Amino acid sequence: MNDMTPAWHLAANADTNPDETQEWRDALLSLAASEGPARVRQILDELARLARSQRIGWQPELNTPYINTIAVEDQPAFPGDLAVEERLASLMRWNALAMVVRANQAYGELGGHIASYASAADLFETGFNHFFRAGRQGDLVFFQPHSAPGVYARAFLEGRLSEADLLHYRQEITAPASGARGLSSYPHPWLMPDFWQFPTGSMGIGPISSIYHARFMRYLTHRQLLNCEGRKVWGVFGDGEMDEPESMSALTLAAREKLDNLVWVVNCNLQRLDGPVRGNGRIIDELEKLFAGAGWNVIKLVWGSDWDGLFARDTTGAWCAPSPTRWTARCRPSPPKTAASTATTSSARTPNSRHWPRA
Ligand SMILES: Cc1ncc(C[n+]2csc(CCOP(=O)(O)OP(=O)(O)O)c2C)c(N)n1
C-alpha cells in the first residue's frame, strides 16, 4: 500500500492482530510442509464450510496465483524439436509480415493486423504440430480471425499455397487473372472452401459456434449417428473477442453438458484492436474468474520458460501474491475439472535460454 491508498481500503484490510495472523500463517505453512497441498485444500474447504454456516460472509476468490497453472516440475518433456519449431515459426512470422506489407504497398487500403499473428504464432504452431488432427474424422479448429496471414504463411511453407497466391492477399477478385487464387482477409470457407473450416471474422460468432459444434458432436455420438469420440473442437480467440456477448453467452451450457471435447485458447495479447484494456485490472485474472465461475477448467500460461529461474529464486511466494494483505489466495487450488478448458497466455519471453526439457 502507498500514500494514495483510500482510507476505506486501509480500514477494511487493516490487520487488527498481526501476531495472531502470523500464527495462522505458520500453522498453514507447516501443514503444507508436513502433509502436502491436498490436506491443506481439505482444511481450507472445511473452514470455508464452517464460515458459511456461521454466516461470516467470506467468499473465496476465484483467481489462482498469477503464475502458470502447470508447474515446471510437472511439465512433460517437449515431444518435438523445439529449435526446429522455433525456426519454422520465425519463417512464418516473417512471411506473414511480408505478405501483408506487400498487399499494403500495392493497395494502400489493405492492412492485415500483423501483430495478432505475431502474438499467436507459438500458440498456433503448438496446435498444428502437437494437437490439431486433420482429416474427415479429425478436429474442428476456429482460428483467431486476424491471425489468418500466419496460417497462409504456414500453407506456403507446406507447398499448399504458391508465392503468387501470397501476392494476392485480400485480392480475391483480381487474382484469377494472374493465375493465382486470392486469399481472404479472415478465415472464410465460402471464399476458400478447401482451406477454412469456419468463418470467424465476426467477433463472437466463432466462440459460440465452437460450443454448439462440440455439443452437436456429442449429440451425434450419443444417438449413434456418427462416432465423434476422440475428436476435438479447438478455438483460438483474442481477449478482445471475449467482450462480445456471444462469446460469453453459452459458457455455462458447455460446462453443464460436460463438453470436454472443447478447448479454447484465449490469446491475451492485451491488444484489442479498437478498445483499451480496462482499468488497472489484469485481463487474465478477469477471464479466469469468468470461466471458472461458469464451470470451466482454466489452465493459465502466463510466463515462458525464460522466467523459470526467477521464480525458482522466489522462496516466499512474494511474486505471485495478489496483494500483501490477501496472502491466502496463494494457497487456493485451481478448480476441479469441468467441461472444457481455456488457456490464457502472454508472449513474455526473452530469446536466449530454453529450460523446457526435451524428449
Ligand atoms: C461483430 C464484430 N464487431 C467488431 C469487429 C471489429 N473488430 C475487429 S478485431 C476486433 C478486436 C479484436 O481483438 P482481439 O480479439 O483481442 O484480437 P487481436 O487484437 O489479438 O487481433 C474488433 C472489435 C468485428 N470484427 N466483429
TrEMBL record:
Entry keyword Nucleus: no
One Pfam family from the record: Transketolase_N
Keywords attached to this entry: Thiamine pyrophosphate
SUPFAM superfamilies assigned to the protein according to its UniProt record, in alphabetical order: Thiamin diphosphate-binding fold (THDP-binding)
Superkingdom assignment: Bacteria
KW Cytoplasm (keyword) present: no
UniProt biased composition (Low complexity): 337-359
Signal sequence extent: none
PANTHER family attached to this UniProt entry: PYRUVATE DEHYDROGENASE E1 COMPONENT
Protein name per Swiss-Prot or TrEMBL: 2-oxoacid dehydrogenase subunit E1
Species of origin: Hydrogenophaga taeniospiralis CCUG 15921
